[in-house]
Design brief:
Layout: E1 32-37, E2 55-65, E3 69-80, E4 135-144, H1 147-152, E5 174-176, E6 211-213, E7 217-226, E8 233-236, E9 239-242, E10 254-264, H2 268-275
Antiparallel strand pairs: 1-10, 2-5, 2-7, 3-6, 3-10, 4-7, 8-9
Protein backbone atom coordinates (compact mmCIF):
# COMPACT_ATOMS: atom_id res chain seq x y z
CA UNK A 1 0.00 0.00 0.00
CA UNK A 2 1.33 3.35 -1.01
CA UNK A 3 1.38 6.06 1.58
CA UNK A 4 1.11 9.77 0.92
CA UNK A 5 3.77 12.00 2.41
CA UNK A 6 2.47 13.92 5.38
CA UNK A 7 3.02 17.68 5.44
CA UNK A 8 3.42 19.84 8.46
CA UNK A 9 0.17 21.30 9.80
CA UNK A 10 -0.33 24.97 9.01
CA UNK A 11 0.53 27.36 11.75
CA UNK A 12 0.56 31.11 12.17
CA UNK A 13 3.36 32.68 10.23
CA UNK A 14 4.34 29.59 8.18
CA UNK A 15 3.51 31.18 4.82
CA UNK A 16 4.19 34.78 5.80
CA UNK A 17 7.15 36.57 4.29
CA UNK A 18 9.99 38.02 6.29
CA UNK A 19 8.88 40.38 9.05
CA UNK A 20 9.36 44.09 8.58
CA UNK A 21 10.66 45.90 11.62
CA UNK A 22 8.82 49.10 12.50
CA UNK A 23 10.73 52.27 13.18
CA UNK A 24 9.88 54.07 16.43
CA UNK A 25 7.93 56.68 14.45
CA UNK A 26 5.70 53.96 12.97
CA UNK A 27 4.76 52.33 16.26
CA UNK A 28 1.13 53.00 17.23
CA UNK A 29 2.08 53.02 20.92
CA UNK A 30 4.71 55.75 20.50
CA UNK A 31 4.45 58.44 23.19
CA UNK A 32 5.23 61.90 21.84
CA UNK A 33 6.12 64.73 24.24
CA UNK A 34 3.62 67.53 24.80
CA UNK A 35 4.79 70.94 26.01
CA UNK A 36 3.07 74.32 25.68
CA UNK A 37 3.97 77.62 27.38
CA UNK A 38 2.79 81.23 27.53
CA UNK A 39 4.90 84.29 26.88
CA UNK A 40 3.44 87.58 28.20
CA UNK A 41 5.09 89.17 31.24
CA UNK A 42 3.56 92.58 30.46
CA UNK A 43 0.38 94.04 28.95
CA UNK A 44 0.87 93.53 25.19
CA UNK A 45 -2.21 95.63 24.26
CA UNK A 46 -3.77 98.48 26.18
CA UNK A 47 -5.55 101.74 25.35
CA UNK A 48 -8.49 103.80 26.63
CA UNK A 49 -11.12 101.39 25.28
CA UNK A 50 -9.20 98.12 25.49
CA UNK A 51 -7.93 97.93 29.09
CA UNK A 52 -7.77 94.45 30.65
CA UNK A 53 -5.91 95.59 33.77
CA UNK A 54 -8.78 96.32 36.23
CA UNK A 55 -10.91 93.34 35.16
CA UNK A 56 -9.81 90.88 32.54
CA UNK A 57 -9.34 87.36 31.26
CA UNK A 58 -6.49 85.68 29.43
CA UNK A 59 -6.23 82.62 27.22
CA UNK A 60 -2.85 81.82 28.69
CA UNK A 61 -2.05 78.98 26.28
CA UNK A 62 -3.73 76.57 23.90
CA UNK A 63 -2.69 73.31 22.25
CA UNK A 64 -4.69 71.31 19.71
CA UNK A 65 -4.83 67.49 19.85
CA UNK A 66 -5.76 66.26 16.32
CA UNK A 67 -8.19 63.55 15.26
CA UNK A 68 -6.69 60.08 15.66
CA UNK A 69 -4.64 61.04 18.71
CA UNK A 70 -5.24 61.56 22.39
CA UNK A 71 -3.16 63.21 25.10
CA UNK A 72 -2.43 63.18 28.81
CA UNK A 73 -1.40 66.25 30.78
CA UNK A 74 1.06 65.26 33.50
CA UNK A 75 2.05 68.68 34.83
CA UNK A 76 0.49 72.14 34.98
CA UNK A 77 1.97 75.42 36.21
CA UNK A 78 0.16 78.74 36.28
CA UNK A 79 0.73 81.99 38.18
CA UNK A 80 0.32 85.76 37.71
CA UNK A 81 3.34 88.01 37.28
CA UNK A 82 4.15 90.51 40.03
CA UNK A 83 5.07 94.17 39.33
CA UNK A 84 8.68 95.03 40.13
CA UNK A 85 7.55 97.73 42.59
CA UNK A 86 5.84 95.13 44.82
CA UNK A 87 8.73 92.65 44.88
CA UNK A 88 10.85 92.05 47.96
CA UNK A 89 13.81 94.48 47.72
CA UNK A 90 16.14 92.11 49.56
CA UNK A 91 16.11 89.72 46.61
CA UNK A 92 17.99 92.12 44.35
CA UNK A 93 19.48 95.11 46.11
CA UNK A 94 19.60 94.49 49.83
CA UNK A 95 18.25 97.54 51.62
CA UNK A 96 18.30 99.73 48.53
CA UNK A 97 14.67 99.71 47.44
CA UNK A 98 15.30 101.28 44.06
CA UNK A 99 17.13 98.12 42.94
CA UNK A 100 13.81 96.29 42.68
CA UNK A 101 12.80 98.45 39.72
CA UNK A 102 14.80 96.42 37.23
CA UNK A 103 11.97 96.27 34.71
CA UNK A 104 12.91 98.87 32.10
CA UNK A 105 11.22 102.19 31.50
CA UNK A 106 7.72 100.73 31.56
CA UNK A 107 6.55 100.64 35.18
CA UNK A 108 4.00 97.89 34.47
CA UNK A 109 6.55 95.14 33.97
CA UNK A 110 7.74 92.38 36.20
CA UNK A 111 11.20 91.94 37.67
CA UNK A 112 13.57 89.52 35.97
CA UNK A 113 14.74 87.97 39.25
CA UNK A 114 11.46 87.12 40.96
CA UNK A 115 8.75 87.81 38.45
CA UNK A 116 5.92 85.51 39.61
CA UNK A 117 3.79 85.88 42.72
CA UNK A 118 5.29 83.32 45.09
CA UNK A 119 3.07 83.64 48.17
CA UNK A 120 -0.26 81.84 47.63
CA UNK A 121 -2.84 84.56 46.92
CA UNK A 122 -0.28 87.12 48.07
CA UNK A 123 -1.82 89.82 45.89
CA UNK A 124 -4.86 89.94 48.20
CA UNK A 125 -3.02 92.13 50.73
CA UNK A 126 -2.62 95.00 48.24
CA UNK A 127 -5.80 96.99 48.72
CA UNK A 128 -7.29 99.63 50.97
CA UNK A 129 -10.70 99.16 52.58
CA UNK A 130 -13.48 99.59 51.67
CA UNK A 131 -12.18 98.48 48.27
CA UNK A 132 -12.34 94.77 47.53
CA UNK A 133 -9.01 92.87 47.50
CA UNK A 134 -7.58 91.81 44.15
CA UNK A 135 -8.84 88.43 42.92
CA UNK A 136 -7.20 86.03 40.46
CA UNK A 137 -8.14 82.50 39.36
CA UNK A 138 -7.27 79.97 36.66
CA UNK A 139 -9.17 77.23 34.87
CA UNK A 140 -8.24 74.41 32.49
CA UNK A 141 -10.80 73.80 29.74
CA UNK A 142 -11.20 71.42 26.81
CA UNK A 143 -12.70 73.04 23.70
CA UNK A 144 -13.95 70.93 20.79
CA UNK A 145 -12.10 71.57 17.51
CA UNK A 146 -9.02 73.58 16.55
CA UNK A 147 -9.48 77.22 17.58
CA UNK A 148 -6.22 78.27 15.87
CA UNK A 149 -7.44 76.89 12.54
CA UNK A 150 -10.80 78.62 12.92
CA UNK A 151 -8.99 81.91 13.36
CA UNK A 152 -6.61 81.29 10.46
CA UNK A 153 -9.53 80.48 8.14
CA UNK A 154 -11.64 83.38 9.47
CA UNK A 155 -14.33 80.85 10.47
CA UNK A 156 -16.26 82.14 13.52
CA UNK A 157 -13.04 83.64 14.87
CA UNK A 158 -11.54 86.65 13.10
CA UNK A 159 -7.88 87.75 13.38
CA UNK A 160 -7.33 89.85 16.50
CA UNK A 161 -7.89 93.59 16.08
CA UNK A 162 -7.68 95.81 19.16
CA UNK A 163 -10.21 98.20 17.60
CA UNK A 164 -12.84 95.47 16.98
CA UNK A 165 -14.39 93.84 20.10
CA UNK A 166 -15.80 91.02 17.92
CA UNK A 167 -12.24 89.71 17.46
CA UNK A 168 -11.32 89.62 21.15
CA UNK A 169 -13.01 86.27 21.88
CA UNK A 170 -10.46 83.46 22.36
CA UNK A 171 -7.64 85.81 21.40
CA UNK A 172 -4.27 84.70 22.81
CA UNK A 173 -3.86 87.95 24.79
CA UNK A 174 -5.17 89.48 28.02
CA UNK A 175 -8.57 90.98 27.17
CA UNK A 176 -11.24 92.91 29.12
CA UNK A 177 -13.52 90.76 31.28
CA UNK A 178 -16.52 91.89 29.24
CA UNK A 179 -15.44 89.49 26.46
CA UNK A 180 -16.56 86.48 28.54
CA UNK A 181 -19.14 88.20 30.75
CA UNK A 182 -22.18 86.80 28.92
CA UNK A 183 -21.16 83.25 27.92
CA UNK A 184 -18.46 82.62 30.51
CA UNK A 185 -15.15 80.87 29.95
CA UNK A 186 -15.68 78.44 27.03
CA UNK A 187 -15.12 74.69 27.00
CA UNK A 188 -15.55 72.11 29.72
CA UNK A 189 -13.46 70.99 32.66
CA UNK A 190 -11.54 67.70 32.20
CA UNK A 191 -13.97 66.05 34.62
CA UNK A 192 -16.49 66.78 37.32
CA UNK A 193 -13.72 66.22 39.85
CA UNK A 194 -11.30 68.73 38.33
CA UNK A 195 -11.69 72.38 39.27
CA UNK A 196 -9.50 75.41 38.70
CA UNK A 197 -8.29 77.43 41.62
CA UNK A 198 -7.42 80.82 43.04
CA UNK A 199 -3.95 79.72 44.19
CA UNK A 200 -1.03 79.71 41.80
CA UNK A 201 1.08 76.65 40.88
CA UNK A 202 4.68 77.81 40.49
CA UNK A 203 7.19 76.24 38.04
CA UNK A 204 9.15 74.64 40.90
CA UNK A 205 6.02 73.15 42.50
CA UNK A 206 5.61 69.41 42.04
CA UNK A 207 1.99 68.62 41.22
CA UNK A 208 1.82 65.38 39.19
CA UNK A 209 -1.50 64.67 37.52
CA UNK A 210 -3.10 62.50 34.82
CA UNK A 211 -5.58 64.48 32.71
CA UNK A 212 -6.97 62.72 29.63
CA UNK A 213 -7.59 64.83 26.52
CA UNK A 214 -9.72 63.32 23.71
CA UNK A 215 -9.09 63.71 19.98
CA UNK A 216 -10.02 66.84 18.01
CA UNK A 217 -9.78 68.98 21.15
CA UNK A 218 -7.97 72.20 22.03
CA UNK A 219 -6.48 72.36 25.51
CA UNK A 220 -7.06 75.87 26.89
CA UNK A 221 -5.62 77.37 30.07
CA UNK A 222 -7.42 80.54 31.18
CA UNK A 223 -6.97 83.09 33.94
CA UNK A 224 -9.30 85.82 35.23
CA UNK A 225 -8.80 88.75 37.61
CA UNK A 226 -10.28 91.87 39.15
CA UNK A 227 -8.23 94.57 40.90
CA UNK A 228 -7.82 98.26 41.72
CA UNK A 229 -4.56 100.12 41.19
CA UNK A 230 -2.66 101.21 44.32
CA UNK A 231 0.24 103.40 45.38
CA UNK A 232 3.25 101.10 45.89
CA UNK A 233 5.01 101.48 49.22
CA UNK A 234 7.19 99.57 51.69
CA UNK A 235 8.06 99.80 55.38
CA UNK A 236 11.30 99.88 57.32
CA UNK A 237 12.19 100.71 60.95
CA UNK A 238 11.38 104.35 60.31
CA UNK A 239 7.90 103.58 59.02
CA UNK A 240 6.20 103.74 55.66
CA UNK A 241 8.26 104.44 52.53
CA UNK A 242 6.53 105.98 49.54
CA UNK A 243 7.86 104.72 46.20
CA UNK A 244 6.40 107.57 44.16
CA UNK A 245 3.25 109.39 43.20
CA UNK A 246 2.00 106.89 40.60
CA UNK A 247 -0.24 103.87 40.96
CA UNK A 248 0.31 100.25 39.88
CA UNK A 249 -1.93 97.22 39.47
CA UNK A 250 -0.88 94.32 41.78
CA UNK A 251 -1.56 91.62 39.16
CA UNK A 252 0.16 91.48 35.77
CA UNK A 253 -0.64 88.93 33.00
CA UNK A 254 -0.40 85.20 33.72
CA UNK A 255 2.34 82.67 33.05
CA UNK A 256 1.28 79.14 32.12
CA UNK A 257 2.80 75.82 31.12
CA UNK A 258 1.51 72.30 30.53
CA UNK A 259 3.51 69.13 29.90
CA UNK A 260 2.48 65.59 29.04
CA UNK A 261 2.35 63.08 26.20
CA UNK A 262 0.41 62.50 22.96
CA UNK A 263 -0.35 59.08 21.44
CA UNK A 264 -2.24 57.50 18.54
CA UNK A 265 -5.60 56.02 19.46
CA UNK A 266 -5.31 52.69 17.58
CA UNK A 267 -3.23 50.95 20.22
CA UNK A 268 -3.85 48.72 23.21
CA UNK A 269 -1.06 50.61 24.91
CA UNK A 270 -3.15 53.78 24.63
CA UNK A 271 -5.84 52.16 26.79
CA UNK A 272 -3.21 51.12 29.32
CA UNK A 273 -1.69 54.61 29.40
CA UNK A 274 -5.11 56.11 30.06
CA UNK A 275 -5.37 54.21 33.32
CA UNK A 276 -1.76 54.40 34.51
CA UNK A 277 0.40 57.43 35.22
CA UNK A 278 3.28 57.33 32.75
Amino acid sequence: MRRRPEGRPDHVGEHVGPSVEQSPEQRPDLLEPLLACSDYAYWPFQDEVFDPRPAGAQLVLSQYIPTGRCAWIHALHVAPYCPAELADPWWTGGGYLGATWGAGSNTERTSGQHGLWATPKGWEIYYNAPDAPPAWSWSLRLVKGDIAQLRRHHTNLQPFDISDPATWYLAPYPVPASVYATSGIPGRAPSGYFHGGSCQILPHDSLPMQIFVPQDTTICLFSQWTQIDIYPYARDVSGRIEYGNYRVYPILPTFGRIAGVVQKLDSAAAVDNATTAR
